[in-house]
Amino acid sequence: MERMVGRRRLLIGGAGLAGAGLVAARGRGAAAAARRQATPAAPATDTEASGEVRYLISPSGPNEAPALQEVFDTVFRERYPNLRVTIEVAQGGGGEDQLLTSMVAGEAPDIFDAWTSRATPYIDAGQVLDLAPLVERDYPPAALDDYFPWVLRAQTLPNGFQWGMPRYVNITTLVYNRDMVEEAGVPDPTVGEGWSADQYREALIALTQRQGDRVRVFGGHVPVYFYGPFAYKLRGWGATPVDPEDPTQALFDSPQGQECAEWHRQLLLDEPVIVDKGFLETGGGQGVVGAIANFGARRLATMESGFYPFSLADGVGDSFRFGFAPPPAGPVERPVQGSADGFTIWANSPQQEAAWEVVKFASGPEYQRELARVTGLIPVRRSLIPEYQQLVTEARPQLAEANFEVALRLLETGDPQERPLFAEAGEDYTGDAEAEQIINAGLEKIFVVGDTPVSYLTELAAQVTDAMQIG
Prior knowledge:
Elements: H1 5-9, H2 22-27, H3 32-36, E1 51-57, H4 64-79, E2 83-89, H5 98-104, E3 111-114, H6 116-124, H7 132-138, H8 149-153, E4 165-171, E5 173-177, H9 178-184, H10 197-207, E6 209-211, E7 214-217, H11 227-236, E8 242-243, E9 246-250, H12 255-270, H13 277-282, H14 287-296, E10 302-305, H15 309-316, E11 322-325, E12 338-345, H16 352-362, H17 365-375, H18 385-395, H19 405-413, H20 432-449, H21 456-470
Parallel strand pairs: 1-2, 1-3
Antiparallel strand pairs: 3-12, 4-12, 5-10, 5-11, 6-7, 8-9
Helix pairs in contact: 4-17, 6-20, 11-12, 14-15, 20-21
């Protein structure tokens, strides 16, 4: 089947793709001088750009949209007086992808928040603009040196298609209820490098509280029923989901992969001490929102989660003391999951150049500073990290005692990585969306429905491999 990726690249004109891998190459060895500079080098901009640009955000908290709209109405308009940005909030729920529907109808927002797993289905549908030629055109090497290199690299698929510019840094940590850990006599997870796999298992069991046959407090939240978190946990057991030499080949059914799955299946279903998906959703909602709601309500003692410090602080309030710790290790290594959240431009936007000006500003230091101030999200600019620590503790004083600096240390020492991607016919990485859908359905059988043994991973891996090789 013919893909539409190639046609999207032509929208920019004759810029070509000679610099498609430029972002990755430039980001790898940022000079120490770039870390220290007070004012990072800036890309070329067109402050005379005009028009109205719609930006669809996926907020991490209820106050984010109006606060960021104010930034665009003030700081942004000072630089771009003829360009207006209107923020819209993505609506979740329901079986229909509302964004894709609006794209097909020709009514989509010009810019939307995305991450790799979210971007690939839209790339597959020909709805994402390749930013590589624009980056080559407007960013001299020095203007890219201030980004965290791995975050910058992760905005580009292995075939060179750049789906976004960095929006914020997200990294997985262990969040824990300090009061519960002390009361249970569990070792502090911030001591040394963090909990080993054995210490983690013992802690999850010790922290679980039961009332008769009913679990009142689960020891932890580990969402391995989704492919992203499962792929990250595989690294701790020395396994990988994808053959690094052949991205059509699924390897998550290896002995190490099945051992990892069984370790988590037992704690989810047999013990149970890891919270199940149904309990989580009835107690506060899906994904991170549900996890934070349950954690704040003392229904979870720990959770492995992306880094959302303000949302967490607001969800807990003054109810108890909490802290951040390194993610628990597996038997082989202590993996650190990093998420490549970015700004993505709709391929059929009638305001592509204006939208690109907005993205350059939003990925730059002024907006990144405001984003950190409003949300607590880690800025993508390394030069802002010293300011970030002060902004966070001033806005949410309880975070000063929560060891939130662990996330910043992991950025430098933890080798954060996005999960590897599958590719149809070994070249088309938009096929990863289909692979993820197949894997999620299989993980649901193992970890949620609970009537399927981990040996099913062998059949599941064959399904994914066949889909990628036939594609």
